Amino acid sequence: MLREGERVMPLELFFDLVYVLAITQCTALMVHDPTWEGVARALLVLGVIWWSWVGYSWLTSVVDPEEGAVRLLMFAAMAAILVVALCVPEAFAGRALEFALAYGVVRAIHIALFWIASRDDPDLRHSTSTLAASSAVGVGLLVVASAFDGVAQGAMWALAILLDYGGPFLFGAAGWKLAPGHFAERHRLIMIIALGESIVALGVGATVSLTAGVVVAAILAVTLVCAIWWSYFDVVSIVAERRLIRAAPGKVRNELARDSYSYLHLPMVAGIVLVALGLEETVAHVDEPLHTVPGAALAGGTALYLLAHVAFRLRNVRTLNRRRLALAIVLVALLPVVLEIPALAALALVTGLVVALVAYEAIRFADYRDRVRHEVTDEPPPTGHD
Fold first, then answer.
1. CA distance 77 to 15
2. CA neighbours within 13 Å on the CB side: how many for 178?
């Protein structure tokens, strides 16, 4: 039964808390191996973890997670996700097989619950069957990859993610059921979890004395995270939810949800995780220039986040936010500068640019923002504001 109009349940919030550790482990993986290979591995792990969360965000549109046996199965999935998170530091080494098997349990419970929910819905049952097939291939490849290492292992992971993500795209989205308001709220909450991980990274990085530089770095870091929060929650998430609610039910709405949320929110979260790496290293070494990977993570992660917003807007309203695109390009172009100046100055530069963008949009489009937030309109202004 479709849970149209229902709010996110306490168990769903509880369920999402397990992903706090999982996302934190992705940042920790990069911190412990601050190389391009380490970043690539962490992003592959994030891709797998994200897709497992996405599956449950669709599931709870059609099942009440707090009813009967569903509650117990959700608890079982939480336990499996916890094991997945604990295996992340060695997901490409000694615990690769355990990671794959635990992830397989997460996906199996998800498919089982969808199978139960689709017993009276042939279209949903067909979609569940195709998802089961792509999930089995993805999990199987991760199991096989556990027997390899190096490039071969990474390639198998990438192929597993590509095939698993490709299932809903290749086999169509018409059969899925979606409660749009509930679905959008679930994604708002996971964005808060991702941003919260950036705050956690500050505490992890501040293992040195609490100097004036560390205090300033912490203030700048929180300011950057707040600006990132503002860029999504001030107007973007509101407009996106209304677009999803007003989209034609069925194929049109499902494809909009798949593209805008299941796919395009991943680079947003990935950008935030990369920023967290840059913040952690900045707080730990305020007076020294950032090494290449953390510096690229700070500026490039912010750029990736902004580019995901540009794509998100294009998919929802078919217009281009040139300001955010321009800032993303500027951040990438400034990478040589970011790597030469002290970490504190680099953080100040990135934070200042993002805050300037947010402030400009808030002032320049104040009337539009007010109308959106008071439900007068959800159309972009002629100049193209998010």
1. 9
2. 33
